[in-house]
Amino acid sequence: MICDNAQQNMILAQYGELPDELQFPLEQHLTDCEDCRREWKALQALEAELALMPMVEPSPNLVAASRMRLDEMLDALPPRSFAARLMGNFFRWVGTMQSAPALTTLLIGMGFLGGNLLTRYQVAHAPKLPVPVILSNTSQGAIASVSGIVQTPNSEIVQVNYNRMVPESVQGSLDDPQIRQLLMLGTKLATTNDVHANSVALLASECLAGHSCEGDSASGANDGIRTALLASLRSDKNATVRLKALEGLQPYVAQDERVRDAVLKSLMTDASPSVRTRAVSLLQPVQADSSVRQVLRTVSAQDANPAIRTASFQFLQGTADIQ
């Protein structure tokens, strides 16, 4: 509060006409301003002196003339700004609230109740989001594919359709057709090298044991055990797996031309010396075959591996003794 406003308010306070909302600001200003405090004390001293003198009632003519002059001066004042009117209305409303505590309590209660009802309405009509699904249960299988996506109009809710790949297991004898079929699939679709190697080893052991080791299935497709072992012998990158497949094909070198040709090709082109050496020994049942002897002569004379050349030469020498 500036000093000019404080001095005007001091005059109103002296006559008891200062609004309540301006009383505290005036007292605060008088505490901080020495000049205004001195002026206020002078007004109080003047009021004390005037109180000792007898009060003279003004004449009716003076009162009427003063009122007319006051009205003229009020009419001559410029209109107040919007901010001043708003501030005045606010202070009058605060004064009304202070003079009517019951009304104030009622308004506060109505505001609290209205806010509570509004919050409940917003919560009740808010879009309900679906409970999130956490895919942590591995027993349900991994997600194989997403088959569809649908978004709810005018919202962030999305429906995703997907297909699961559920893992299963089966237990049974090696002679069971279903077990054999799964082992053959293991030579093609294994998820790890160990699973692939175990599949080939079990199929080879079945053939060596003299159990059914057909070349093709009943449907005519090349998906029998013998065909699976031939595929592993030709193309598997693991030499141990190729050697296992070669062992499993041993009983069929003499009766199956495909097996004989695969063994000869392994002898000539396989990168593993162990596989090539074993291929030489497997050719014993077909040692009289002219095509087999021709391959062995070529290998014994031209192969870069001395051990393979020696094994092939000894095999031919044994063949000559038999003849």
Description:
With 323 residues, the chain is mostly helical. Among the domains are: 1-39, no CATH class; 171-252; 256-323, no CATH class. Helix content is 64%, strand content 6%. It is built from 14 helices and two strands. It has helices spanning 3-14, 20-32, 34-52, 60-76, 82-99, 101-125, 177-189, 193-208, 225-235, 239-248, 257-269, 273-282, 290-302, 306-322, and strands at residues 142-151, 158-165. A two-stranded antiparallel sheet has the order 1-2. α7 packs parallel to α9 (225-235) and α12 packs parallel to α14 (306-322). The chain is rod-shaped, with a radius of gyration of 55 Å. The chain starts with a helix and ends with a helix. The model is unreliable at 133-138 and 216-222 (pLDDT under 50).
Descriptors for this entry?
two-stranded antiparallel ribbon, 2 strands, mainly alpha, 323 residues
Average residue-wise pLDDT:
79
| Cα-based radius of gyration, to the nearest Å | 55 Å
Distance between the termini: 134 Å
* Structure classification: mainly alpha
* Percent strand: 5-15%
Overall shape: it is: rod-shaped
Unreliable parts? 133-138, 216-222
Biggest beta sheet summary: 2 strands, antiparallel
Oligomer: single chain
Number of helices: 14
Helix content: 55-70%
Order of helices and strands: HHHHHHEEHHHHHHHH
- What's the total count of β strands? 2
Strand order of the largest sheet: 1-2
